[in-house]
Queue: 4 jobs
Job 1
Amino acid sequence: MSHPAEGPSPDPRGVVIGPLDLAARVDDALAVQALAFGLTDDEIGVRRHIVLRHLATPGARALGATSETGRLVGFVYGLPNHRAHWWSTVVAPYLRAEGHEGWLDDSFVITELHVHPGHQKRGIGRTLITELTDGAAQPRSILSAIDAATPAHGLYRELGYRDLARPVHFPSAQSPYVVMGAHLPLRRRRA
Ligand SMILES: CC(C)(COP(=O)(O)OP(=O)(O)OC[C@H]1O[C@@H](n2cnc3c(N)ncnc32)[C@H](O)[C@@H]1OP(=O)(O)O)[C@@H](O)C(=O)NCCC(=O)NCCS
């Protein structure tokens, strides 16, 4: 006995995940980041310039999670790592000290991943980072996260990222960070 044909069912999360024109939606994205991660108005202004500069890098890519009303509720972006980039110059000595400097080559860097607090814990963050890295030309991925037992750190570990160097201190940040790396594709959720 077959069921009657059904039309496409709405995503249970009520969002569509797909390519994002982040340059066009940068203010919406930073508003999500401000709520999820906490940013002052001054920091938003600084981040805006940084994001737009990153997007001019060859190979930079972004995905967004958009609600049925068109509201951006999550985003991720990243770019092929380059040793001359500011982030790389900061983390390189820490990776070198641990014998992991080679991770700076042939790696796709996850620069930002944020989900609006009202939409967290529904699998959106996992889908965003998994789909973005699935499209990377590089065989591995690196990122930095706050060095604490946060949801982000838990997610990254579940996806197969391991700690490469910690604590890592960025000049502009008060909290220590951990640099993590994973071979691609990222690990899928166990059935
Ligand atoms: C990190 C973040 C993007 C995760 O997004 P999300 O959509 O809530 O994550 P998901 O629902 O896809 O969760 C995936 C996994 O992450 C982990 N996770 C998510 N929320 C968690 C929580 N509150 N506590 C512990 N682990 C958590 C779990 O392992 C979860 O897997 P599970 O659903 O099988 O339990 C989101 O929490 C966020 O925006 N945080 C604030 C901003 C931030 O820290 N960004 C990263 C900067 S490095």
Job 2
Amino acid sequence: MKVGVIGCGAMGAGIAQVAAVAGHEVVIYDNQAEALKKAEANLSATLHKLQEKGKLSNASEVIGRFHFSNSTHSFADCGLVIEAIIENLEIKKQVFREVEQVVSDHCLLASNTSSLSVTSIAAACQKPNRVIGLHFFNPAPLMALVEVVPAVQSDLQLIEEAKTLMKQWSKIPVVTKDTPGFIVNRLARPFYGEAIRIFEEGIADMPTIDWAMTEIGGFRMGPFTLMDYIGHDVNYIVTETVFQSFFYDPRYKPSFSQKRLLEAGWLGRKSGRGFYDYAPDAIVPKPTQDQVLGTEIFERILVMLINEAVEALHLKIATEQDLDLAMTKGVNYPKGLLQWGKEWGWASVLSKLDQLYDQYHEDRYRASILLRQMAKN
Ligand SMILES: NC(=O)c1ccc[n+]([C@@H]2O[C@H](COP(=O)([O-])OP(=O)(O)OC[C@H]3O[C@@H](n4cnc5c(N)ncnc54)[C@H](O)[C@@H]3O)[C@@H](O)[C@H]2O)c1
């Protein structure tokens, strides 16, 4: 099967690499000639480097499978086309309409959108039943997780077909309902939001919160380091989109601390300044290594995360297994959140959350009904 990729930025180029390494001929289309040139050079360099490191034996053969094109007409004989262009609903719809005119009736159309509704993208097509979300993580060749997102209109057999194909591409597929943030970008919100809340209230400073989450919690990066790494232009926008898409549920409320960073152009590591200063002569702030305070911070953020996972299970966003796989494989959490809750004890998780609710009387800290039921049983 020939695979088409629309857009060859960070994600499109990565997805094209994965498909070509898996043996497919890959047509790569972008409307910017510069982007095509850059992707061609980068893919070639990356694959040769992988061969030098002994991770690939046939770089030239894989590179020979790429066909770069400045026209959607090159998708005519593709069996699957994956879109990875700018995150804008109207532009994506327009591109899907255009591509549908070119491909055969049997061609599957997928979107790599992180935050838009796959259902509304599908609605732009004459055959919306052939559209599905395939949400890869960055960098696509390294991150094993792919969220498979059937639209309301998708043929049900697409789910199994997509899962099988992703396994052939050495990926770990999880299936999620088409709701904002899918699994990972929904469940992870409190990791950022609650950390910022703790900081804004002056309970602890940023390095102390980061220290608590890495040293006590076992996370690879603390929330502030991670937000700076992702970039506030991405991380803040995801938070705001999720908040708006959930009809302004206070659980997902964005913060002014992060919004102001974005407005200042302090995007994080890539701009040299975010929550932290990355100038070569900047003084690296030290955490207060207080075990009691650290444990308090870690437990507060963790119960918010676990509650989010339990609520997603309650609303059947995904299976228990997929919810946990998504967090360990998509964002490298040390443990699945439901597994963590089980080990910690549902009653302890609930009690901690109810303490927060009693203290704040804010809807943000409401426990999932399923958490209450599991704690009772
Ligand atoms: N970057 C991430 O971490 C990440 C992770 C998962 C999913 N995504 C999603 O993947 C998609 C692409 O993200 P990215 O980070 O690769 O973006 P990017 O800006 O790096 O690349 C987008 C590419 O699409 C091209 N493009 C834009 N409009 C086009 C059009 N109308 N027709 C053809 N090509 C067009 C651009 O020239 C560019 O090369 C978005 O939907 C994003 O939400 C991104």
Job 3
Amino acid sequence: MEISVPTITCKRCNYTWVPRKADVRLCPKCRSARFDQAREPEKCFLCGQQSDDMKQVIGNAQVYNLCPECREKKENDNGL
Ligand SMILES: [Zn+2]
Ligand SMILES: [Zn+2]
């Protein structure tokens, strides 16, 4: 018979581990104390849409978040 082991998955880095203690404070991989809280989804600089697949683009000494859609648009638009 298999015993199911309780595991914890870090919502920040997706690392899954078996807790040794009942009291878990840190993700063993990314050391985040907030492993049980997902990161706030970033907002797209251009359309304001929130996405988990945001890419940071550096332009004009600033960092912008771009959602996949706006990234595609930007790639098709060579003028920018
Ligand atoms: Zn983690
Ligand atoms: Zn966008």
Job 4
Amino acid sequence: MSNRHLICCAAALAGALAAPQAARADGRAALQAACWAPSALAARPGERTPVRLSRPASMRVPNVAGVQEAPTRAAIAGAVRRVALPPGRKLVALTFDLCETPGETAGYDGAIVDYLRSQRIKATFFAGGQWMASHKARTGQLLSDPLFEIGTHGWAHRNTRLLGGAELKREILAPSLVYAAIRTELGQAQCAAPHAASFSAIPARPALFRFPFGACNAAGLQAAADHGLVAIQWDVSTGDPSPGQSARAIADLMIRNARPGSIIIAHANGRGYHTAAALPLAIPALKAKGFEFVTVSELLAAGKPVVTDTCYDSRPGDTDKYDFLLGRRLSSSLPREPSPDHARAAPTLPR
Ligand SMILES: [Zn+2]
């Protein structure tokens, strides 16, 4: 039943997971204000630009070997492309990938985040484990923001179609460990002490996963589901990784292709070349068409996810090309197993 679209019946469970978080989310604003001045939240010059490394960074990879399987599988099996909503509801989810590969320190496109905050627009960020490790403060700021949700996006942006066993588990699960560690560190900070209730509004672990390159196979989908992660694709692609894609073109794609329940993909790691300039063109136009912006978890809770049993960009098979391009190079650029030093510290995921 390759590529068959399914209307999944798990929305009720997804809603049960998402609704309490949404209801408590506003409490996070006080925590964020206590821990960061507005100037620290704002974009900084130069931070958007990725930095190529002459040697791969020797970044600590969390050891996932001792981490137990999630007590419950993800509520949704397969890859979510969009959500079918009840008639009259015009919700849409903006998503921004924060990819980082071993050969670089990726950027943080603060102009995007600043604009979303200024307009009170909700969004979901899919952050790579390596990106979170190299952007701990930014990750904490996004976690503490009631507008935003963080899902994960692989450890080192490896093509999971080329991985198996321990390597596949590490690529999918290691970002959850970094997320949990940064969340814990935030909760232990002095600034957070008076805001324990607000801190509890930050989900203890991520619930959403986006496959690097938008490419997956059955084993990857199974591994994500086994760790309680719902795979999120998209039905509206901005094409923003292309330097030739103008802000006007990105905005027009968003305005023309978004429909109720859509999930829009863009990038906030400095590889979305004109994304920040496109948002002030697209978002007011979408608002004028009656759309409301929500996080992916809120979108899932509002309807029935449209799920496929494979991952793709615009048509089935179109991301398989990465098996023969970047995927093998990236896969071969990492150590095969964590070093013994890493193996001594087996972090655990909060339940
Ligand atoms: Zn990516």
